[in-house]
Amino acid sequence: MHDREVFADEIFGFLAQQAVQKLLKAWLCVLGKRFPFTHDLVELANLLKECGENVDEFGDVDELNPFAVEHRYASRSEDDLPLDRPMITNMIERLCRHVEVAE
User: Is position 30 within any domain?
Assistant: First the structure.
């Protein structure tokens, strides 16, 4: 999915946002915490921070938040910078490994 000619940023961003959302919720579950019904990655990250967890090491989840709803159904502006797909993929892989180890 790193090929922009095949997968638009809206598609890649939506799937990346979903992956991070599910991983943050899984992390909260591992900690025995309940989570709200939300797509807001910042809200989920803040809940983890309140539990004393270091979410910052996985990068800025703010970048993916608009893909939950806003960019899911509408194209991004031509002024928007393209997503750094390798960096985002790496962040998701590191986050996944972290949640697996936390179990």
Answer: yes
Q: Take residue 7 and report the two structure tokens written for it.
A: 């997968």
88 band by pLDDT with thresholds 50, 70 and 90: very high
Q: How far apart are CA 86 and CA 19, in angstroms?
A: 15
Structural domain containing residue 95: 9-102
Beta strands (DSSP E) in 18-71 are none
Q: Is 2 among the domain residues?
A: no
Flag whether 32 is in a domain. yes
Angle at 36 between CA 45 and CA 73, to 5 degrees: 80
Task: Tell me how far apart the alpha carbons of residues 82 and 36 are, in angstroms, rounded to a whole number.
Answer: 30
Q: Is residue 92 part of a domain?
A: yes
Q: What is the pLDDT of residues 2-23, one digit of tens each?
A: 888 898 888 899 999 999 999 9
Global pTM value:
0.89
For 40, the token pair is 């807001």
For the record, the structure tokens of 61 come out as 């989840």
